[in-house]
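PROTEIN DESIGN WORKSHEET
SECTION A - STRUCTURE
LENGTH: 137
TOKENS:
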């Protein structure tokens, strides 16, 4: 998550004679980032949280850890790309007011996919399973 903070302070030298970019460009990137954010949340829920809570994915086994790791890597890449959109806007000389939301969203999405969160751990007891809202079969 440290990279998102660095993106805010990347020095961008002024470029004279460069082509003007549409002011709608940050909003187009924002739409793409929003779609990615929904995809990240869905991916984590479908491929990680729900299977773990339902007991079909055991992150303590080698196979289960590999499946969980694959879902986390994809979500991390997508989350980092949201922050990189802010970096791209910075290089295109947009104000920080356009850059900061992308950086903040990228950091938040990385936080959602953190591997140490309790939802990504196997329930230890039936009480933990009951709190997880997993369907009882």
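SECTION B - SEQUENCE
RESIDUE ASSIGNMENT:
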């Amino acid at each position: 998550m440290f990279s998102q903070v660095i993106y805010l302070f990347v020095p961008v030298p002024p470029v004279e004679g460069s082509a003007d970019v549409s002011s709608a460009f940050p909003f187009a990137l924002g739409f793409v980032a929003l779609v990615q954010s929904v995809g990240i949340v869905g991916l984590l829920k479908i491929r990680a949280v729900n299977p773990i809570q339902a007991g079909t994915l055991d992150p303590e086994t080698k196979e289960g850890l590999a499946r969980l790791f694959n879902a986390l890597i994809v979500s991390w890449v997508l989350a980092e790309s949201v922050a990189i959109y802010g970096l791209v806007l910075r290089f295109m000389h947009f104000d920080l007011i356009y850059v900061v939301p992308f950086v903040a969203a990228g950091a938040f999405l990385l936080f959602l996919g953190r591997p140490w969160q309790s939802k990504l751990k196997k329930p230890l007891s039936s009480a933990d399973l009951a709190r997880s809202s997993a369907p009882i079969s």
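SECTION C - NOTES
The chain has one domain: 26-122.
Residues 26-122 form one domain.
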